[in-house]
Amino acid sequence: MIPQQQRLFTLLSECCDNAPNSCRLALTHCEDLFRPGERVSFTQSGIVVGNDKWIETACSQEWQMPQWTPDAERFAAVCWRHWAEVIHQQLHHDDTLFLYQGDNPFYQEIARELQRRRQILITALLTGENISAAVRDLIGLGIGLTPSSDDYLVGLSTIIFINGHPLSQYRKRFLTALQTAGNNTTLLSKITLEEAFHQRYRESVTRLVTHIITEQQHVATQFITDIKNIGSSSGCDMLYGMADACALSHRSGGNYVDQDSC
User: Fold this and answer.
1) How far apart are CA 208 and CA 199, in angstroms?
2) Residue 41 belongs to what domain range?
3) Beta carbons of 210 and 28 less than 8 angstroms apart
């Protein structure tokens, strides 16, 4: 944590994928190396952990996300409806609160409210009206360190904020909503949303988006599985948002598919 900047950084093991605000360590097991409560300090050349550990970062290579700017012909060539169906088929009722069908009344109510507010956002994006309000009402809804609705918005933004996407014009409205409702969620989730709205994601997410844009015929389900494995349900909530974004992209091309009818 850097209090002055209100920024969180994550130390990752080497088996994890790259992500914004992270430092991936060349160690597989760190259980005996780091201790809870140790002070962490950041400098221009490295990270000090406790009183006996130093992580050199001066020679580290910065991971840069690829930038996509598909022209109108490339955008139209993407099989958006197909991808909405493929992603949705990989999600089951016990993967995300958006699809919850269990007996827990608390989860049932959250799932109902998530779906209601999701539909309001989709309508707002289709009409171009009340978008900031719809995003604001979703932020912070759900459970976990990054609530389900926030992870959904991250997934949605991976597609609709691609440069050249017809819906990318609404990025400022998403950012406005985050400015007004950011305190309704956790600090980690607020930071993740801000990064996402500026098109900065984990490496596993960028692999899937790149695959969707550039590889039309072959479906690499492993890319989807990699995202499903993020957190307890965060990855699945993100995928649900990505499926909606693909459906909306298909709608932008002239035909809309409701993923719930697939």
Assistant:
1) 14
2) 10-56
3) no
Its pTM surpasses 0.85: no
Q: Is the pLDDT of residue 114 over 90?
A: yes
32 and 79 part of one domain: no
* Side chain identity at residue 222, one-letter code: Q
Determine the Cα–Cα distance for residues 27 and 62; give it in Å rounded to an integer. 18
The answer to the question of residue 227 being in a domain is yes
Query: Does one domain contain both 195 and 249?
Result: yes
Residue indicated by tokens 């109108």: 72
Give the whole-number percent of the chain exceeding pLDDT 90.
Answer: 48
Q: Which sign, positive or negative, has the C-alpha torsion 114, 20, 173, 227?
A: negative
Across 9-29, average pLDDT: 72
Question: CA 148, CA 18: separation in Å to the nearest integer?
Answer: 22
**50/80 same-domain check:** no
pLDDT band at 18 (very low <50, low <70, confident <90, very high): confident
Domain shared by 34 and 114, yes or no: no
